[in-house]
Design a protein that fits this description.
Elements: E1 3-6, E2 16-22, E3 29-30, E4 35-40, E5 45-49, E6 54-59, E7 66-68, E8 72-77, E9 100-103, E10 128-131, H1 133-142, H2 160-169, H3 175-184, H4 230-244, E11 248-256, H5 258-271, H6 281-295, E12 301-304, E13 307-310, E14 316-318, E15 320-322, E16 325-327, E17 330-331, H7 339-355, E18 370-374, E19 393-406, E20 412-425, H8 431-445
Parallel strand pairs: 14-18, 18-19
Antiparallel strand pairs: 1-8, 2-4, 2-7, 3-6, 4-5, 6-8, 9-10, 11-20, 12-13, 14-17, 15-16, 19-20
């Protein structure tokens, strides 16, 4: 009996996934446990295995498709079995991703009356196809004329990849204008057409001469347009919303890093004797932050419209730089861990983020009550971190620099100082409490000792 393979739900916050790669072709024999396809959420990547032995009878999506969770992706069975009953079924939330019908464009029509953004007019009556909600949203935003697009999805459906390719190729003109441009080597008028309708054949002009070896507009030199990756879009949207929807202010302070560096030397010395934990400077800072948050719960909070939600436990977010982009996984109940335990947990969390195996539920901003972002390894002496809303604050950790100071023996010399940059939401925290919290972090860093090992 044929069995459907569905798109798994990776976390309660995930509504759809991007199918990134097929490992098996239609008609290919598969065994239970064989890798069928790879997929990714906003920030994590996964692979799906075949649940049974059999023949891969059908694949309902292509690489690059956005697939709703719990939707049928493929069917495994025996040769000759029907797969029609499995097509576009199996998703209880399909109404949220309802496909929108549009009408194809007859090529012989040169100009038609524009309909709503991302659609074509009723006068274009030959052929019918569908467009995914994600593709329709992008087409509306970029004012792309869909009658020039041929869908590459199942059944000729227009998907986001098709719209991106249309944007890259500048397809914002009528079908006959497209033919005339390709046949006669014409081009559109100088200037962008992103916010207007479409070009007709009468709008086309002779291409302007350009210097050899260059592409693009005259005088701009060569360039390459790269569509935003899925994770880049998520990061961009989150950063913009954060700055638009909160009152952010940053305070800078420095902590004497001598106790921290001494503790680090002790860790290295003990490692030579078999000590298991490689506790880093960042681990020490995070431990100091956790202790400080317990004493200043106003910073261990979320700003939720008319409420400020303070947490009794510390769920620590840590910014991790990965090959796929910036990720901020959360370590739940970090306040229950010792310094060695915190160090081990942070390392495991960072490794899973880099491997793409971290749970999506730990990547949403709501999972953490406070975030730490460390740019010290890059030599950054001061920066302004952006809050991960709805959190009310984030700590930026800077590099260690030598500064003149009075030494413990009373003489004047140089001491290592670590810069700390606290960005907080002034809607939730005033300057006084924010400064006291930052000063507490400084105090905790300067109080680190080998007793914590």
């Amino acid at each position: 009996m044929a069995l459907a393979v569905i798109m798994p739900r990776q976390g309660q916050s995930v509504e759809s996934c991007i199918l990134t790669e097929w490992y098996k072709a239609e008609g290919e024999q598969v065994s239970k446990g064989d890798l069928l396809f790879a997929y990714e959420t906003d920030k994590a990547a996964f692979e799906e295995e075949a649940p049974v032995d059999g023949l891969l009878l059908a694949r309902f999506f292509v690489e690059g498709d956005e697939v709703p969770v719990l939707q049928n992706v493929a069917v495994i069975g025996v040769e000759g079995e029907s797969v029609e009953e499995f097509r576009l079924r199996g998703n209880p939330d399909l109404s949220k991703n309802e496909e929108v019908e549009i009408k194809g464009a007859p090529e012989e029509i040169e100009a038609v009356t524009p309909g709503p953004l991302g659609t074509v007019s009723d006068s274009q009556s030959k052929g019918r196809t569908t467009i995914s909600p994600r593709a329709r949203k992008l087409a509306c935003k970029k004012r792309v004329v869909l009658d020039a697009i041929h869908g590459s999805g199942p059944g000729g459906r227009i998907i986001e990849r098709d719209v991106l390719e249309a944007i890259r190729q500048g397809k914002r003109l009528t079908p006959l204008a497209q033919k005339k441009m390709e046949a006669e080597g014409l081009t559109v008028p100088a200037g962008s057409n992103e916010d207007c309708g479409r070009y007709k054949t009468g709008d086309l002009v002779e291409p302007a001469p350009s210097a050899a070896g260059t592409t693009g507009l005259e005088g701009t030199g060569s360039y390459t347009d790269t569509p935003l990756s899925n994770i880049r879009k998520i990061i961009a949207g989150a950063m913009l919303r954060s700055l638009q929807n909160s009152a952010q202010l940053t305070h800078h302070l420095s902590a004497n890093a001598s106790p921290m560096l001494e503790l680090r030397r002790q860790v290295k010395a003990r490692q030579k004797e078999g000590y298991a934990h490689n506790i880093t400077l960042n681990d020490m800072v995070c431990f100091a932050v956790v202790r400080s948050l317990l004493l200043h719960p106003g910073a261990n909070a979320h700003f939720l419209d008319n409420n400020i939600r303070q947490f009794s436990q510390v769920n620590l977010g840590l910014a991790v730089d990965t090959d796929r982009g910036l990720m901020v996984p959360s370590l739940l109940n970090a306040d229950r861990l010792s310094l060695p335990g915190l160090s081990l947990s942070l390392k495991e969390m960072a490794d899973k983020s880099k491997q793409g195996s971290i749970s999506p539920d730990l990547l949403v901003p709501e999972a953490a009550s406070f975030t730490v972002s460390n740019l010290g390894n890059y030599g950054v002496e001061m920066f302004t971190p952006v809050i991960n809303l709805p959190q009310v604050a984030i700590l930026g950790v800077n590099t260690i620099v030598l500064r003149p100071a009075v030494l413990p023996d009373g003489n004047f010399g140089f001491q290592p100082f670590m810069g700390l940059s606290l960005t907080y939401d002034h809607r939730a925290l005033d300057g006084g409490p924010a400064t006291l919290f930052l000063a507490e972090i400084k105090k905790q860093i300067e109080s680190l000792s080998t007793d914590l090992l």
